Amino acid sequence: MNKELIINASGDGVEIALLEDKKLVELHYEHGQDKFAVGDLYLGKVKKLMPGLNAAFVDVGYEKDAFLHYTDLSPYFRSLVKFSRQSIEGNVPWGNEFGKFKNEAEILKTGKVTEVMQGKPEILVQILKEPISAKGPRLSCEISLPGRFVVLTPFNDVVAISRKIHSADERKRLQRIIESIKPKNFGVIVRTAAEGKNTAELHKDMLDLAEMWRSIQENLKGAKSPLLIHSEQDKTTSILRDLLSDSFQKIVVNDKKLMGETKEYIARIAPEKEEIVSYHNGNQAIFDTFGISKQVKAAFGKTVNMNSGAYLIIEHTEALHVIDVNSGTRSAEAGQEQNALATNLEAAQEIARQMRLRDMGGIVIIDFIDMKLAENKKQVLDAMEQAMANDRARHTILPISKFGLMQITRQRLRPELNISTAEVCPTCKGTGKIGPSILLADDMEKDLSYLINQGHRQLALHVHPILEAYLTKGWFFSSIRSKWNRKYKVKLKIVADNDAPLTQYHFYDLKTDELIKL
Fold this sequence. Notes:
Blueprint: E1 3-10, E2 13-20, E3 23-30, E4 41-50, E5 55-59, E6 66-69, H1 77-89, H2 113-116, E7 122-129, E8 138-140, E9 145-146, E10 150-154, E11 159-161, H3 168-181, E12 186-190, H4 199-220, E13 227-230, H5 235-243, E14 248-253, H6 256-269, E15 277-279, H7 286-289, H8 292-299, E16 303-305, E17 311-316, E18 320-326, H9 336-358, E19 362-367, H10 374-387, E20 395-397, E21 405-410, H11 440-453, E22 458-463, H12 465-472, H13 480-488, E23 491-496, E24 505-509, E25 515-516
Parallel strand pairs: 1-14, 11-12, 14-15, 18-19, 22-23
Antiparallel strand pairs: 1-2, 2-3, 4-5, 4-7, 4-13, 5-6, 7-8, 9-10, 10-12, 16-17, 17-18, 19-21, 20-21, 22-24, 24-25
Helix pairs in contact: 5-6, 9-10
């Protein structure tokens, strides 16, 4: 699979498109004023405890207090509170050696928030979910600092290996390496990208993250809540950090400064890939050059068409997403059951793409075309699981129920990406109404009379082909155009314009071919 990253920088921010085999699968928008992004670290102040919810509301500077549930406190919550307090006071005797920090006793996995939080403390928290709809951000006290190969988690000494690394020998090798180089007081999660990497590469990644934690300590000194302490990397570098692999063939940027930053970052994390970064300086917009604008228009909206003639209907409610699969104009020569299977298999691929592209979260209900055979239902389930294998968001897929419905839950971290593909009608200007068509010819004649009085004698009238046929139908002397020529003693040419709206028309000067404004 060939992957390409197309980056469009503009005055409003940065648009990032991820293509897999030339097909758009992810679209990200990054604005300079973006706040409360997933991964950002804030110094927050506990404002209210909610025993009924077993949660707390924390002020992190958002218009609504953020939500922190007991299950997101982390077993090392007391250590985090102590660390936050001492860092703010500047009482950090461990200096750069975080290993000297003495952890507090762990809290129970099941407990009450009122028993743990005393005096509504100021604490370092991480954004777990961005503000969505009327809800504020959701927070976590399980601080994690992601790198290219490892994720560093302060206050513990646990080493975990990604489940996607299947080789037992490789898992043992990575475990030995990490145990030997891991700083004290840090837990490490080994990412899938670490497979096959040597000790030097892993150690460098870990040292970079340890330095990041040291800078967080510095930012906490004298801080007053609410305050942003550390911001996650911009989306461009975070996508490269998480996705960059041998399958990446091209990274194209239309801004020289951003291209330099991207190239510098890749040179640091994967020097062998530095040459795939290039600058786009064509006359055409970068998203148009790579066909992204067209794909965006085709992929977003209520109806999504597929190559076979089948189509999807995608509806969104506050509680869930509903996707209906329709066979449309697809040929049914192979029989109803086989046609339903083929349509559903094609739909599974497109639905998996749509969920990544729109960043759908929560519950997704899919109404596939009914199938009778159990093996066909199992085949559709397998196809959906395979299609979603590359999805970075955590998800769960249930088999097709007896009602023909498939249920999927997908991790919701940020608001769903919605792009309006509708355009304002140039004829009605969005009102849904146009002037009475029966009076259209009369309106044209009034404008023609006005132009003649202004001294125009040779005119061309550009209209929709249907109007052109209406104005010129009949014998030469009986058409409406001929009547106007005789009545006003003018030479009027009727021109059919395929791009013209049905009820719009324009007069041009035949000599200069210039539009005459009325």
